[in-house]
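Re: beginner question about structure tokens

> Can someone show what the tokenized structure looks like for a real chain? I only ever see the sequence side.

Sure, here's an example I had lying around. Input first:
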Amino acid sequence: MGQTALRPKPMPGREPDGASPAPAPRPCSPRPRPHAARRRGRRLVNLLFAAFVGVVLVLSGIGLGAMGATVIGPGAVVDPRGRPAPPSRPAPPATPPAPAATLGVQVMDAGKPGALVVGLHVPGPAQAAGLVRGDVLLVFGTTRIDTAADLVRAVARARPGAEVRLTVRHRSGGFEQVTVVPAVAA
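And the corresponding structure tokens:
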């Protein structure tokens, strides 16, 4: 007799109408699972590799740290082997560095000779002189500018506060000479 929605299925092990229970399925013979052994072996190899790498990193870190360390002893510098370091000469009095100059521009190499202005610091010397994004700086003072690095070197040699003539090619193609006063770089 077929099962319908009105008659529930019998509980396992109990058959309707006193029928004997169905025989239990025979367990399958254990088959080897080669993929499980490979996975287990791979886990072991990964674990051993990770442990090896960790040991190498720790040992190399300790070795490098000990090689470059200088130990401060009581009142004197002592090298790592325990011997006092030879006395050093007193340092000459420090001279204050000359103030660095800046134009307040961000430049990159143009495809042609010159440095292409890609950004301006507002307010800044370049913005006060009338430069805009897209201008190409060709000459700074008497120095010809072929690359952005040339402009950086020329501005570094300039004295802050001194007027400098700057030759500019605008995006429209026109040339103009402007006077810019490099500021002190902060």
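Each token stands for a local structural state, so reading them left to right follows the chain. Helices lie at 34-68, 125-129, 148-157.
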